[in-house]
Amino acid sequence: MNSVEIDWKILVGQIVNFAILFFVLKALVYKPFLNLLKTRRDKIEEGVSKSIQADEKLKQIDELKRIAEKESDEEKKKILMKAEEDAKKRKEEIDKKAEDERQVLLTKAKKEAEDLKDKEIEKTKKEIIDNAFSLTEKLIKESVDESKNKKIVNDFLNKLEV
Amino acid sequence: MKKEKEIASWSRALYLALEENPNKAKDIFQNLEKSLMKKKALIPGIVKKFNRMYEKEKSADLILAREMGESDKKTIKEKIKKSVPQAQMIQEKVDGNLLAGFRLKTKDVLIKASLKDVLQKIKNKTYGHN
Questions:
Q1: Helices B2-20 and B43-58: angle between axes, nearest 10 degrees
Q2: A119-154: string of b/e by CB count within 10 Å (b at 16+)?
Q3: How many CB pairs under 8 A join A and B?
Q4: Quick check: A70 pLDDT over 80?
Q5: Phi, psi of A30 (to 5 degrees)
Q6: What is the mean pLDDT of chain B?
Q7: Can you give the pTM of this predicted structure?
Q8: Rounded CA Rg of chain A
Q9: Tens digits of per-residue pLDDT, A78-137?
């Protein structure tokens, strides 16, 4: 039966080697690696943090933009409303002016029509009167004889004497 | 020229005096003679001028609507002379347009006494004229 023999010298040597290797590795590899990892993690955390900040900023910008747009919309709306109001006012003024002018023209036309009507009535009236008097004169001329004329002359003379 | 002026002045005075007092004609002429004294030669001229003035002042046109008999015309003229002192020398005419009645025109007055004038008056009132 083969038994396992432990060479204490080799073991100790191995342990020493291992310890030396351990400390060397720890000092030269592990620590810089940890530092590297830490730096890397810090950078990542910083990046994440910046990304969050950027998101926040973006959100703020979006909000500002939205507010600005809203304000701009309000302003535009106000301008539009004012323009609409002005246009309405202007239209009312134009309508009123047109109505006034229409009324003036209407009144003038009415007056002219009335004048024309009155003129025509007056003309017709004059013609009727003239015709009536012409006819009356004719009838009188035919009906007045010498004796009637004498009587009329005497009536007028009597009035003169009075 | 002076003589003419004097005649005109005396004739005018005579006319006015006779018009104011037609019944005192004799006295007025006597006064005229007295007033003229040495200028009595002016009397014929004064009378002539007076007559012309009288004709001018007292003549009148009687326009009848129809011809009338002489006696009627005489009666009419007499009545007119009584009523209108300015019409003492009347000449008559006929104008058929007057229809009936007459018109009398003196130097200052126009008397419208015809049916034409009556109708005209009515016509003016109908038109709305005064």
A1: 60
A2: eeeeeeeeeeeeeeeeeebeebbeebeeeebbebbe
A3: 61
A4: yes
A5: -65, -50
A6: 89
A7: 0.56
A8: 65
A9: 998 999 999 999 999 999 999 999 999 999 999 999 999 999 998 998 899 899 999 999
What does the alpha-carbon distance between residue B61 and residue B92 come to, in Å, rounded to a whole number?
A: 6
How much is the average pLDDT of B47-71? Answer: 91
DSSP H/E element including B105: strand B101-105
Domain locations in chain A as residue ranges? 8-161
Average pLDDT of span A25-45: 90
- β-strand pairing of B89-94 with B59-64: parallel
d(CA B20, CA B25): 10
- Note whether A160 and B83 are within 8 A (CB): yes
Q: Which of A152, A157, A159 sits opposite B115 (nearest CB)?
A: A152
The beta-carbon neighbor of A156 closest among B68, B102, B123 is: B102
Cα separation, A158 vs B76, in Å, equals 10
